[in-house]
Amino acid sequence: MPLLRSLATKAGIMRTPSDRETRLEQEGKWREAQKLRFKQYTKCAHKQGREIYELIRADQRILFQVQARAAQLQTGKDAALALKHRKKPCWTTRPAKIARLESKLLEANTERGLWGKSTDIAPKQLPTECLDGSLEALWVAEHHRYNKLSKLQDGPAKRAYLSLHQRSGWHLSEWQRSECAAVGGCCARDCGCCTRSRCPDLPTLYYGHCLSYCPCCAKARGFTITPDSIDDDKMLPELKLSDWYDSHDYVSRLKNAHIWGL
Ligand SMILES: [Zn+2]
Ligand SMILES: [Zn+2]
Ligand SMILES: [Zn+2]
Q1: Is there a domain that residue 30 lies in?
Q2: Number of domains into which the chain is organized
Q3: pLDDT above 90 covers what percent of the chain?
Q4: Which residue among 87, 90, 129, 181 sits deepest, i.e. has the most Cβ atoms within 10 Å of its Cβ?
Q5: In a domain, 136, yes or no
């Protein structure tokens, strides 16, 4: 039967799931297409848990760099303004860290902490990066995401991710906004930062919710937080590997928010 199906698909008699999804999207039934992808995914033997986690994390890492950059720019603006008016900046404190951090060690610790005792997953080569909001750091973070996306096997989850992330405002779901508001992010206020590009000086527009470096959140808090990496960012909940695989409620919602958008 699988052989017959394969032959029929090749001959164009039978539509592939991907064809059906495309057709639904063309008919304006995007949610139906995502539901179809999700249904296929539930039947997959390999749930790609680690690959999906790493892809979501890679997206968060980009956002971290973008917001670190925005914080740097804000610090510069505040300093210039203070100089003009000959007074101390009112809220910014030390500039965002300009340091090439020992990320090999950091990444090694993270990998060990996340993936526990498994011996078959030792990374071949640990990424080196500077976590300082520079253009170089952003490039590295983008490259890292590209690698993670490449590692995610072609299938319903990857198609769903790509389709979701093409939609403007995909990150503004009720759940994501409530998560942002719960940790004191801009969704708790009327500033609208999460609906705008996070760093207007960049040619690419980046959207997302607040992390520790968000300048607007720092102003609202009255102090800055300068984590060295996304793994230290207290605006995100700490996740363990067991949470990821135990159908943890938060993880299910996170995956829905970043992959399915249902
Ligand atoms: Zn914010
Ligand atoms: Zn704001
Ligand atoms: Zn937000």
Answers
A1: no
A2: 1
A3: 55
A4: 129
A5: yes
The ranges of the chain with pLDDT < 50 are 1, 92-96, 98-129
Say what the pLDDT of residue 6 is: 58
Q: How far is the CA of 17 from the centre of ligand 3 (A)?
A: 34
pLDDT of residue 126: 38
Three-state secondary structure along the chain?
CHHHHHHHHHCCCCCCHHHHHHHHHHCCCHHHHHHHHHHHHHHCCCCCHHHHHHHHHHHHHHHHHHHHHHHHHHHHHHHHHHHHHCCCCCCCCCCCCCCCCCHHHHHHHHHHHHHCCCCCCCCCCCCCCCCCCCHHHHHHHHHHHHHHHHHCCCCHHHHHHHHHHCCCCCCCCHHHHHHHHHCCCHHHCCCCHHHCCCCCCCCCCCCCCCCCCCHHHHHHHCCCCCCCCHHHCCCCCCCCHHHHHCCCHHHHHHHHHHHHCC
Query: Cα of 189 to ligand 2 centre, how many Å?
Result: 7
Whether residue 68 is contained in a domain is answered as yes
pLDDT at 75: 86
| In-domain check, residue 144 | yes
Give the distance (Å) from ligand 1 centre to CA of residue 228.
Answer: 18
User: Which pLDDT score, from 0 to 100, does residue 58 have?
Assistant: 95
Cα(112) to centroid(ligand 1), Å: 31
Supply the pLDDT for residue 130: 55
Distance (Å) from CA 203 to ligand 1 centroid: 21
Where in the sequence is the domain holding 168, given as residue range(s)? 47-257
CA of 110 to the centre of ligand 2 (A): 30
**Ligand 2 centroid, distance to 192 Cα (angstroms):** 6
